[in-house]
Amino acid sequence: MSGFVEKPEPIQVPGLVHLHTGKVRELYRNEAGDLVMVASDRISAYDWVLPTEIPDKGRVLTQLSLWWFEQLADLLPNHVLSTELPAGAPDDWAGRALVCKSLNMVPVECVARGYLTGSGLAEYNESRTVCGLALPEGLVDGSELPAPIFTPATKAAVGEHDENVSYEEVARQVGADTAAQLRQATLAAYSRARDIARDRGIILADTKFEFGFDGDTLVIADEVLTPDSSRFWPADQWEPGRPQPSYDKQFVRDWLTSAESGWDRRSEQPPPPLPQHVVDATRAKYVEAYERLTGTTWG
Question: What is 104-237's CATH superfamily?
Answer without folding.
Answer: ATP-grasp fold, B domain (3.30.470.20)
